[in-house]
Amino acid sequence: MSITPSNENIIPLIKKESILASLDRGIRLNGRKLNEYRQLSIILDYAKKADGSALVKLGDTGVLAGVKIEAEEPFEDTPNQGNLVVNVELLPLAYETFEPGPPDENSIELSRVVDRSLRDSKSIDLTKLVIEPGKKVWTVWVDIYVLDYGGNILDASTIAAIAALYNARFPKVVKENDEIKIIREEKGDKLPMNYPVVTVSVAKIGNHFVVDPDLDEEGIMDAKISFSYTPDGRIVGMQKSGTGSFTFDEIDQVENLARASSQKILEELKKQLNIQ
């Protein structure tokens, strides 16, 4: 298995010192406040052949998510619910250190974190993906492609996955004489989404905490924590990365920052997806 370093972005010492000096003044080099998210834009239906898709731009970070829905047998341990499978690919075109080939450990980790946030939040109701109980269910494939690596691809990937799921529609299902026919050429209902979920990442750089770190900030950060939230404020996922550490008090501070940002991102997401 190949190794794709996720933060092998070498920052010159003079730039690192500039970033730290700017943070000491309470502002980031790009002009953002320490708790400020980058601009978010979402283009739905970007991949026309997919059952649902969304292109997400978060500052310089670009992520495309596509949904494909297939009728398959249920998993043995969950005969009465559908299947959800999330895959992430770090495309070589996205960054100079990303390599072609099978998914590496960074892609697999990213896939699992996004999958866990979607699954544990019950954002999508898997029990409503059953076609014939115990025999046939819908499998929802969520394929995520990182197109431009500008930092914080986890938050962008979760947003892209949620947007593509809300955009997706089942193939049409017709029941004739106890026989179920699936007509892929015609679209049916939307997926049974309960609510959106978002992930907010906060990096620790020296004595500072910055929300939604960009590529340069990730290159000099000590550590990072990502929290996933539902609209009612439940934490449904948490991931720590980087070699540095957080004290318990620092985790409380970081979680407060992430929670405040999550509400803003959820409102922006609802607005762009036109959902309640």
Automatic annotation (TrEMBL):
Q: Where in the cell is it found?
A: Cytoplasm
Q: InterPro entries annotated for this entry?
A: ExoRNase_PH_dom1 (IPR001247), ExoRNase_PH_dom2 (IPR015847), ExoRNase_PH_dom2_sf (IPR036345), Exosome_comp_Rrp42_subfam (IPR050590), PNPase/RNase_PH_dom_sf (IPR027408), Ribosomal_Su5_D2-typ_SF (IPR020568), Rrp42_archaea (IPR020869)
- Which SUPFAM superfamilies does this chain map to? Ribonuclease PH domain 2-like, Ribosomal protein S5 domain 2-like
Of the GO CC terms on this record, one is: cytoplasmic exosome (RNase complex)
Q: Name one GO molecular function term.
A: mRNA 3'-UTR AU-rich region binding
Main localization of the protein described in the UniProt heading: cytoplasm
Start and end residues of each Exoribonuclease phosphorolytic domain: 36-171, 196-260
Q: Which domain of life is it from?
A: Archaea
Gene Ontology annotations of biological process type: rRNA catabolic process
- Give UniProt keywords alphabetically: Cytoplasm, Exosome
Q: Subunit structure, briefly?
A: Component of the archaeal exosome complex. Forms a hexameric ring-like arrangement composed of 3 Rrp41-Rrp42 heterodimers. The hexameric ring associates with a trimer of Rrp4 and/or Csl4 subunits.
State the function annotated in the UniProt record: Non-catalytic component of the exosome, which is a complex involved in RNA degradation. Contributes to the structuring of the Rrp41 active site.
What family is reported? Belongs to the RNase PH family. Rrp42 subfamily.
Q: What is this protein called?
A: Exosome complex component Rrp42
